[in-house]
Amino acid sequence: MTAGRNEWIKPTTLVGRNVRLVPLSQDHREGLVEAVRDGALWRLWYTSAPAPEDMEAEINRRLGLQAAGAMLPFTVMHEPSGRIVGMTTYANLDPTGPRVEIGYTWYSLSTQRTGLNTEAKLILLAHAFDEIGCVAVEFRTHFLNHQSRQAIERLGAKLDGVLRSHQRAKDGTMRDSCIYSIVMHEWPSVRSHLTWQLDKPRKNRDE
C-alpha cells in the first residue's frame, strides 16, 4: 500500500516482539541519557551518539528536521521492559520515489548483539516497503566503521558506492560514506532472511 505524499512522514509507532519504536520526544531525554551512558557511546568518534549533556539539543535537532519534513525520528524501547535503549530515524525523506534512509542509529552497549537491532530494522523496512511503498531504502555509514558495515551487509543490503569526503565527522576529520540500499524487489527475500535470523537460537546468531 502506498501512503499519500505527506502522510508517510507523520510520526508513527512501530511495534515488534521485543522492540517498540515510538515518536521521539523530550520526555525521553532521561532514558536516552541513561542509554547512551551504557558503553559511553559518545566517545566513539565514528558514531552519531550524543554526549549526555548534549541529549536535549540532539533531540531538538532531530525534531527540527522532522518539522522540516527531512527526518522521522524514533526512540527505541525494549518492548518487554519498556526501557529506552537508543535512537533511530527515517532520514533523507524523498516522497517522489518514495525512498528513505534508515540511519542516525545508536543503541546502548548492553543491547548490542541481542537481536534487537535486527528486529528494529525489520519493522522499519516493513513499514517503508509495505506501508509507504518505497522503491528503495538506504543505509549510510563511515567507511572505517567496519562493525556497522558488517551489520548492514548482514541485513542483505548491497553497496551502491562510496562518497569520498562526504561529511565532516565530529572530531573534524572528513568522512567517506558507504552507501548501501535494499530495493523493492529484494524486500521479500530480505524479510524472510531477517525473520529467520530472529527465529533461530540466539547462540547461533551472528549479529
From TrEMBL:
Q: Which Gene3D superfamilies match?
A: 3.40.630.30
Domain of life of the organism encoding this protein: Bacteria
Annotated TM spans = none
All copies of domain N-acetyltransferase, residue ranges: 19-179
From the Swiss-Prot or TrEMBL record, give the protein name. RimJ/RimL family protein N-acetyltransferase
Q: Which organism is it from?
A: Bradyrhizobium algeriense
